[in-house]
Amino acid sequence: MDPYLLTLAGTAGTSLVALLVGEGWQQTRDGVVTVWRRFRPQAAEEVERELEASRTAALDAADTDGSDPAGRLEGQWVGRFAALLGEHPEAADELRGLVAGWQRQASDGQRIDGGVRLEARAQDNARVYQAARDQHITER
User: Fold this and answer.
1) 79 near 61, Cβ under 8 Å?
2) What is the secondary structure of 15-53 as a DSSP string?
3) What is the pLDDT of residues 49-88, one digit of tens each?
4) Residue 64 lies in a domain
5) Could you tell me the pTM of the whole model?
6) Which of 31, 69, 98, 108 is the most exposed place for a label (fewest CB within 10 A)?
């Protein structure tokens, strides 16, 4: 498969999973189902059910034990997008448009790439400590 298509599938899968519990879920789901209806109409209903199941799994994990099924879900959706693009490379333009819409949504305040953005300003004798995960500071 073309490396560009694999990258697009990875971006789409990761972005989709990041949006599972977001406010714009309906629009996200509808966009994915529309792509499937256009290129794989026989699988559109199954994809819609899988999207709902993925959302439920993400919401349940956040509400109960705090576990994060994102890695497993990302793998599933990257695989689905890669299979779609492998069979229908012409779907790349539509999928790219869908992902661009998700990124515009992210620029309006919702982060979809799972990344962390840290920004700090310190003046004079101030200190700034930032971490994307655990941080241990020992000062002497």
Assistant:
1) no
2) HHHHHTTSTTHHHHHHHHHHHHHHH-GGGHHHHHHHHHH
3) 999 999 998 888 766 655 667 778 899 999 999 999 999 9
4) yes
5) 0.71
6) 108
